[in-house]
Each structure stands twice: as C-alpha cells, then as structure tokens.
Amino acid sequence: MITDIKGLHHVTSMAADANTNNDFFTQTLGMRRVKKTVNFDAPEVYHLYYGDEVGTPGSVMTYFPFGRMPSGRRGVGEVGVTEFAVPKGSLGFWREHLAAQGVTGIADGKDFGEARLNFAGPDGDGFALVETEERGRAAWTGNGIGSDVGVLGFNGARFSLRNADATGELLEFMGYQKSETDGNVTRYLIEGGNAADTIDLEELPDAPAAGGGAGSVHHIAFAVEDRAAQLRVRQALMDTGYQVTPVIDRDYFWAIYFRTPGGVLFEIATNEPGFNRDEDTAHLGEALKLPSRYEPHRTQIEQILPKLAA
User: Fold this and answer.
1) Where are the domains of the chain?
2) pLDDT in tens, 161-172
C-alpha cells in the first residue's frame, strides 16, 4: 500500500470563456487567482489557478478556458462534483450570495452528516460547498468574502462511476480507507495528510458515459510531499500494472499521470516548489507567466490571449 499521498493537490477542469471563469472564481467565490499561465501543450489557451493566499496544495482549482468549447455531457467516468470546504454556519450566506450572483442549480443537501449546498458553475460544472471544521486553514479575503464564510480549500470530490469496485480498490492501495456507505455513495478518507481528504464514489449503473467539454473535470491531482515520494508512488503503481507517464515538470510542481479503471484521469503532484517560485506572494497571479520554451514567443502569445480583469 502507498503511504505517501497527502490528499488532494488540485483539480483541473475546462471552460468556454476565460473572463467568465476568472470572474466566477475571484468574484463570486472570492478565491484568489494565484497563477496566470498557459497550457503546456496549447500556449494559445490560458491555464488559470485559483486558491487560498499562497495556493496551498488542497486548495487549488485550475482551468483550461479553451474558448467557445462545447459543453461537456454529464455521466459516468468523471469527477461529477468538486467540493469546497467552508466554515460551519456559513451556508446561509452562500445560499443568498450565489442566488444574488445568478448562480443556477442551488440546492441544499446533507450527506454523511455534513450540510452541503450544491450549485452549478458557469459551464454547468458540478460544485458543492460543504460545512466543515477549519482544520488550520484560512480563506482568502482579498476579494471581499469574509474570513468567517470564505472558501477554505477543497473538502474533496465525488466521482460518478458505473461500478465503483475497482476504483475503490485503487483508492485503498493509494492509502485511502473505506469509511461508510450512504445509498449508492461510498466514502473514502485518507489520514495524516491535508484537509482535502475525502473522495466519494457514486455508482450510477444506468447512466451514460460522460463526454468531456466545458464544465468537465480534465483530471484530479493527489498531493505528495516531494519528488522522492512521487517516484515511490510511481514505482508502486507501475508494479501493480498501471501505465504511468514519466515525471513532467509543470513549473510549480512535478506531475505524473495515469488513467483509472473507472475512466478518471489521476495525477500525482508534488507540493514543491509552489506558486511563489517566480512571483512574490503579494503579487501572485498578476503577471502572465510562460513556460521557458514559450518565452521567445511572448509577444505573439500575448496578442492571442484574451485580456483578463485583475
């Protein structure tokens, strides 16, 4: 069994419009944009990162806004709901705030004893706010959402699967422990890591296969402390039969990827070096940062990318 995984690192999704996406996360949800860069494989497309003050692993939601991208189709084989943690007693504020901002799909819920507020992102993304203990985390307040209600980071994620058995076995191999089952949803928790420690597997045997597009999660990343831990995880996965990519330098972390039995793309990302490697913490997410191979083409790239609000 793998013992190096510390919970979630980040979740990466796709969007249709960069400014709509930026406004939703910085203004509606009050999160901080901690990095403005580009897709490593498509430099004409932004890669936008949102999180807490420093982009702590376990708090970072990232997006590829491909521009006029068709909407994704909900179904099995995907991360169906990305869950953000908020302080206890804050859902009343969020219910009114999201409604005032024109957010759709707002619905109260309670799963595994936790109060939650489900809602949709601008591209139909599946989101939920879950009331939880702060557990040493602090919300970013620079965009006008108070510390008593602000987003603390991730609570976890819910996968939509036709059959959850193989994915459950993989999670247990990765260090998660099966917790409890409520109807067709089974919860897995990881101990000794960050506070983004929950994965729920929802079985939907009759649902159609998901189709990727705007509002779909591209991949979900799990955190390891450093590159040595990442190499141990990579070897353990390959020894078990998984096809895992070589280590890839993503500037702010190192990454490996593999496809899971249920169809969800997993990444294992390092906590090092972090988002302040090329920007002072006070100015994270302000300047366009390019991978070194694209720096000679900065002028052309800046002409193609849409202008973003601060």
Assistant:
1) 8-304
2) 999 999 999 999
DSSP string over the chain: ------SEEEEEEEES-HHHHHHIIIIIS--EEEEEEEETTEEEEEEEEEESSS--TTSEEEEEE-SSPPBPB--BSEEEEEEEEEETT-HHHHHHHHHHTT----EEEEETTEEEEEEE-TT--EEEEEEE--TT-----TTS--TTTS--EEEEEEEEES--HHHHHHHHHTT-EEEEEETTEEEEE-SSS-S--EEEEEE-TTSPBPB-SBT-EEEEEEEESSHHHHHHHHHHHHHTT---PPPEE-SSEEEEEEE-TTSPEEEEEEEEE-GGGSS-GGGTTSSB---GGGGGGHHHHHHHSPP---
8-304 placed in CATH 3.40.30.10: no
- Tell me the pTM: 0.97
pLDDT digits (tens, 9 = 90+) for 172-216: 999 999 999 999 999 999 999 899 999 999 999 999 999 999 999
